């Protein structure tokens, strides 16, 4: 990838059948464009929705552009390690893969803001989508530890799917005052399930199209560009 041209930013989201989630992801991508209007930005999906990531990358490469694929995903895991990294492997020298958004202090800050006033809360349960990939579970555990330090409350993780402790039993053994931090990017099936499982406990909104998350995605893009250009600079 050459250092003297602006690389396309291909945002890679998971996708959802829920129109609320699609609107939120598109709003986040528009926020990226607002922050960096000089960068060509497009949106592809690793699952459920179209354009599928491989076909989108193929079109961008056909236009003779360099590209960085930035996962709009909160943790590492299969989609980052296989789908996103696979596109970089398929187009060496032309496509690079950025890291997942999390774990990162920016996400912790947004989570804390969504939780609001915790003076009447003894502990927080971080409700995550879940994964069968150990890397994603470790990332969620790291986020929980960072959130605990930030809010001054114990935080444990409960997953809606995949491996790891499921949300329902985690909530079931919490006998004190609990708030549920929704560690999801957008509304949809998983967010609705978190609210159902939480019952009458407070549940925060998904992270959403927050400008801080857009700036974080752009930082992942910039970090990848710097990493790629560093050998030439030396």
TrEMBL record:
The organism's place on the tree of life at top rank: Bacteria
Keywords: Lyase, Metal-binding
InterPro entries: CbiX-like (IPR002762), Sirohydro_Cobaltochel/CbiX (IPR050963)
Signal sequence, start to end: none
SUPFAM superfamilies: Chelatase (SSF53800)
Any Pfam family: CbiX
PANTHER family, alphabetized: FERROCHELATASE CHE1 (PTHR33542:SF5), SIROHYDROCHLORIN FERROCHELATASE, CHLOROPLASTIC (PTHR33542)
Name of the protein in its database record: CbiX/SirB N-terminal domain-containing protein
């Amino acid at each position: 990838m050459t250092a003297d041209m602006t690389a396309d930013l291909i945002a890679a989201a998971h996708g959802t059948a829920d129109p609320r989630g699609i609107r939120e992801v598109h709003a986040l991508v528009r926020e990226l464009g607002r922050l960096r209007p000089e960068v060509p930005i497009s949106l592809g999906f690793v699952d459920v929705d179209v354009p599928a990531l491989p076909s989108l990358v193929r079109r961008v490469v056909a236009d003779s552009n360099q590209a960085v694929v930035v996962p709009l995903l909160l943790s590492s895991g299969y989609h980052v390690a296989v789908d996103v990294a696979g596109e970089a492997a398929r187009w060496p020298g032309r496509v690079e893969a950025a890291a997942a958004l999390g774990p990162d202090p920016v996400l912790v800050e947004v989570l804390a803001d969504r939780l609001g006033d915790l003076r009447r809360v003894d502990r927080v349960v971080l409700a995550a989508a879940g994964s069968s990939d150990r890397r994603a579970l470790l990332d969620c555990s790291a986020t929980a530890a960072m959130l605990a330090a930030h809010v001054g409350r114990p935080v444990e993780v409960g997953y809606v799917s995949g491996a790891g402790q499921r949300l329902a039993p985690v909530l079931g053994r919490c006998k004190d005052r609990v708030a549920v931090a929704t560690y999801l990017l957008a509304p949809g099936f998983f967010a609705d399930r978190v609210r159902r499982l939480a019952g009458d406990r407070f549940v925060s909104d998904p992270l959403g199209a927050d400008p801080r998350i857009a700036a974080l995605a752009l930082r992942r893009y910039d970090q990848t560009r710097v990493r790629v250009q560093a050998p030439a600079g030396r």
